[in-house]
Amino acid sequence: MSVELQSVPFDPAEAKAALTQLPTAPAVFALYGAEAKDEPYIGRTPNLRGRLERLLQPSAKHPRRLQLAGRVRRIAWHLTGSEFESLLTQFSLLEDVYGAKALERMHLRAPAFVRYLGGNPYPRIVVTNKPSQREADWAYGPFASRAAAERFADEALKLFLLRRCTDDLNPDPSHPGCVYSEMKMCLAPCYKGCTDERYAEESAAVQDFLATRGESKLVVLRGERDAASANLAFEDAAALHAQVQKVEAVRALAPELVQPMNRLRAVVLQASANLDEVAVFLFERGSLRGPALFSTIGMRIQNEQSGSSSLFAQPMALEPVPDETGIREQGTGSNEQEPATHGRIPRTMLEARMEAVLAKLEEDDGSTPSATVRQAHLALLKRWYYRPEVKREGEICFPEGDGHWPIKSLLRGVGRVAAKRLATAKPQ
């Protein structure tokens, strides 16, 4: 991620002259010293001018500010529209200076995954925060925490007969087994309690369950339940329905963000520094791309606070109308015009605009993100996604089953982000 910085020179003797040039807007900033070897101070703030006035202007109550101001020779900044963008920008600047140490400075720990050990002759699942790229197809996450991943893994195993032991098995009929084999909760490959083919079948079912967040098992159970009900076998249908509910409860422990690591794709919509734009980010191939800016010019943004046009009552957060200002009647000499449409544009153009933004983000520049960047971007996405919904700014959309993006849902998300941004905007 490349960050374009604006900058002004800073003279400690004329601090006010430089500080008055700074905007009073959210930004990520860097304070550079006189020497190129000096490490910059990098931070983020909701009010750039106010923060740097407190840091750099002389103050009798805070003499240390004089020491900091005396070492600064240049102020650089990048305006941001959201905390999500600020954190991503701050990491990019820190990573350029400190490399992998930027992870520690921003407390970006690797998220937890449930990993399917498919390379083992007798596969099992474990929880890890260090899934390898070589087995990215078999790592499912990220989860909100290691405890959340462990709970999901434990509950999922209760639906199958996969082994829980960590031993490298060498099946032997003389093996004593374990408590899970005694409770009939494991196929017991340790003492050849099943054939290798039967264990491979069960392992494949577990892998499908993880890859589809339980949908593979739900489809089978729902079909059997409906068939039993159609045949008037209501007791069997009730038992199958109880199993469906149990699987659904396990599925609920894995939010939509939980996907095979190398197939995780998402679009994040955030407010932009410009009121007439929304910032679009794409998470793909292990890293975040963007922001690409989606212009909201020509969209009618509904008032989210209005009862008659609330987003709950009317999910469409925009009302596209053809961009025509009126057509003069031809051949009559009349100056009368047909009703104007106030510069709004049709939905097809809005969809094309969104598709163009996504195509730009999906362009492959041939670069491969480093392990540091992958960990940071995944941690930032996880941290933002698992916030309480009332505190989570912005929107997220996942691809449909066929891999295509839900353009209409994205446009509705743009409308909600833009409406909230306009409602909270303050004059600068």
UniProtKB/TrEMBL annotation:
Coiled coil: none annotated. Residues 323-342 are annotated as: Disordered. One of its GO terms (cellular component) is excinuclease repair complex. GO terms for biological process: DNA damage response. InterPro entries: GIY-YIG_endonuc_sf, UvrABC_protein_C. It comes from the Bacteria. This is Excinuclease ABC subunit C. It comes from Telmatobacter sp. DSM 110680.
